[in-house]
Amino acid sequence: MPTLSLDDVDLRYEVAGDGPPLVFLHGGWMNGDAWQSQVNRFTPEYEVVTVDLRGHGRTGESGQRRYSVELFTDDVEALLTHLDVDQPVLCGLSLGGMVVQEYLDRHPNQAQRAVVAGPVQSMPPVDVPSDLKPFVSPLPWIAASASFAGPTATFQSLLASVRPMHGGPWLSVDPTVQSWAQDAVSDVQRGEFRKIFRALYDYEPPELSHVSTPTLVVYGDHEVSLVKQQGHRIASAVTDGTVLEIPTAGHLVNQDNPDAFNEALTAFLAGDADRLAS
Fold it and tell me: Its Gene Ontology molecular function terms (predicted)?
C-alpha cells in the first residue's frame, strides 16, 4: 500500500484506474475499504483515490496530541499535491464529508464536483452555541470509556444513544455492513478513538455561500432526521446544491445500497440532472 510520509504520520492510500481524479474520504473510525464498491465501479473511467485518514485503518496513530477536521483536510491537501491531482472530484461520508466541506470553504471553485454523503455538519447534529459546547461535552466520558471499555464498546454505546431518538437502526440497515463497521472500529487504537471523536465534536462548520462547486448531498432513507436536515442546509448554502435520498440505506449509504449510490454518482458526474432526479 503506497505511503505519503508527513512530519508525524505515514499516510496510507490507494490509487486505481486512469482518468479524471475521483477522491473518496471515509467516515469516522472507518477506513478506505468502505469505498470498495465505488472503486470497483469507477476505476474503468477514473483515477480513484482512497485514503486511511490519520488515526484510522492502516495509517494508524500519529504524533499529534489533538486531531481536527482542519488537520485531516491538511493531510488530504498534502496527498493531492503529492499525487499532482488538480481539480478533483471529492466524495466524503460523515467525517469525510466534513473534510469535503472544509476543503470547499478553502477552495470554493477548485474541485470539479463534490459529494457529501451522510451529511454531518456538526456533532451532535444540532445547533449548540460554541461557548456552551465545553460545558455539555461528552469528551470525558468518551475518553474514559475508550480507555477502559475499548473503542468497539464505546462505539456501540454511541450508536445506542442515538437509537431511541431515531426509532431504529440508523448506521446501517445491512448486517454485513454493520459487522464490517465494528471490525473497522476495532482496528482503531484507544487514544486515537478519543482524538477522532474530539475532532468531530469540536468542528465548527463553515459558511459555504461562496462555494460555486456543484455539490451533491446524499443520505439514506434510514438516516437520522437531524442529519438529513443538516444535509439540506449544506445543499442550500452552496451556489449549486442537490439533495438525494437513497432507499434502503442508513448512514453508511454507499455500502448499504451501493448500486443506487453508484448510479446517483454516475449521473452527477455526467451532469445529468434529469437522470439524478428520477
Answer: hydrolase activity
